[in-house]
Specification:
Layout (H helix, E strand, L loop, with lengths): L1 E8 L3 H12 L5 E4 L11 E4 L2 E4 L11 H10 L5 E5 L2 E5 L2 E4 L11 H12 L13 H26 L19 H10 L12 E5 L5 H8 L6 E2 L7 E4 L2 E4 L3 E8 L3 H4 L7 H7 L3 E2 L2 E7 L8 E3 L9 E4 L11 E7 L11 E5 L4 E2 L4 H14 L2 E3 L1 H4 L6 H15 L1
Parallel strand pairs: 1-2, 1-12, 2-9, 6-15, 12-20
Antiparallel strand pairs: 3-4, 5-8, 6-7, 10-11, 11-12, 13-19, 14-17, 14-18, 15-16, 16-17
Helix pairs in contact: 1-11, 2-11, 3-4, 8-9
Length: about 400
């Protein structure tokens, strides 16, 4: 039996950050259990035939939190990054329009743009209709039928794998905050307002090694504490001591892994188990291709239901050490068909927590009960929220400060 003060479940960006917070505070009494054969989780990268592939899908460094940059640059210096003004587009009706579509309608053919604008001005919000109760209703209420039917509804169904009617409204800070007035203003001025973007108006990306270079740098000092190929299968409580997998004894557990993998191994009350059933996730396939497509875009959104994938990433446009012609796609698992043209395919069994109706109450019940057991959830999966990497780092730093 191995005893430590802190046992961290999951060696992704959140678990590694919490580990480094402990080390920076002079605390080396911890272990990190990682189910895979390498740390990094969704933030790993691979070099395949000269192409740099972020195997967990699109990851770019952009944050509103200076302390996150300070933490990252402590491990990988600023000079190791290139900075880019974001170029992302929406491919719709045979036209590629700058993202977000709703403030770049003026880039469409004139008659088509007029139709979109008229539909937007007839939205439910402008007509004083009752506030929506789900994401599908919100799309029409806020932006009108044309944007909803041509873009938001098909794209979100492709990305999440569930109907937008099943999705809640308490995560919309992740998407552009655009109203009808903003749509009209952008068309008159023929420019989009970056202030409406939640993030990524510009971003940083490592000059070498893909996004995973950040993970490699953070993980390096943590290596002696990593226990690989060791998923958490059981957590038992004996007084003030927790026993994990019947092998590790600790005073507290920091969980960054998906709760639907952790709760079955805990003696949780029925109400907590029931709350756990409200937590849903999707699975994404990341497929690498060699292509001769020419574009200045870093990535393109593809709402067309006839196309299986929902996003395309043009690797050499941001990964300076990647050879020309590399592109990868993201496809939700239910839409994926094996493709012999793919140079490599990675399955991300846990890609996004889906903000289905009731998820927030569900994760609150799980987290509140888990804390009474000495188990603290943090990060994309520990808090079951669609966090980008920078927010995972910040949440780990804040949890460490609260527990210190």
């Amino acid at each position: 039996m191995t005893s430590v003060k802190t046992l961290i479940i999951g060696g992704g960006i959140t678990g590694l950050t919490f580990s480094r917070c402990l080390q920076r505070a002079g605390d080396g009494d911890f272990l990190v259990l990682e189910a895979e054969d390498a740390p990094g989780g969704l933030c790993r990268s691979a070099i395949i035939d000269g192409h740099v592939l972020d195997t967990g899908g699109g990851h770019f460094l952009c944050s509103r939190h200076p302390e996150v940059y300070d933490f990252i640059h402590e491990h990988l210096p600023r000079a190791a990054f290139a900075e880019f003004a974001r170029v992302s587009k929406v491919r719709i009706g045979g036209t590629e329009v700058d993202y977000p579509l709703e403030t770049n309608l003026w880039q469409l053919p004139e008659d088509e743009a007029i139709d979109y604008i008229i539909a937007t001005l007839r939205n439910g919000e402008s007509r004083g209709e009752p506030a929506p109760t789900n994401y599908a209703e919100w799309m029409r209420w806020r932006l009108g039928d044309r944007i909803a039917d041509s873009y938001l509804l098909p794209y979100n169904r492709k990305q999440w794998g569930v109907p937008a009617e099943a999705m809640d409204l308490n995560w919309l800070h992740k998407i552009p905050n655009v109203r009808a007035r903003d749509v009209v203003r952008a068309c008159l001025l023929r420019r989009s307002d970056n202030a409406l973007m939640p993030s990524h108006a510009s971003f940083f990306y490592p000059r070498q090694g893909g996004f995973g270079a950040i993970i490699d740098a953070i993980a390096k000092p943590v290596q002696p504490h990593l226990v690989l190929r060791t998923p958490c299968t059981r957590i038992d409580r004996d007084g003030d001591v927790l026993c994990v997998n019947g092998t590790y004894r600790c005073a507290r557990v920091i969980n960054t892994a998906p709760w639907d993998r952790i709760l079955p191994g805990m003696d949780a009350p029925g109400a907590v188990r029931q709350a756990g059933t409200l937590l849903r996730h999707n699975t994404l396939q990341v497929a690498l291709y060699a292509t001769d497509v020419r574009t200045d875009a870093h990535w393109i959104y593809v709402p067309d239901p006839a196309v299986a994938h929902h996003r395309e990433f043009f690797i050499p446009n941001y990964a300076l050490d990647s050879k020309p012609g590399g592109m990868y796609t993201e496809t939700e698992l239910s839409r994926w068909q094996p493709d012999p043209r793919a140079l490599a395919v990675y399955t991300n069994a846990y890609a996004y927590p889906i903000p289905t109706i009731g998820w927030k109450d569900g994760i609150s019940i799980v987290l509140d009960w888990a804390r009474t057991q000495g188990v603290h959830g943090v990060g994309r999966w520990g808090q079951w929220q669609y966090f980008n990497g920078d927010v995972c780092i910040r949440e780990a730093m804040q949890l460490h400060a609260r527990l210190a």
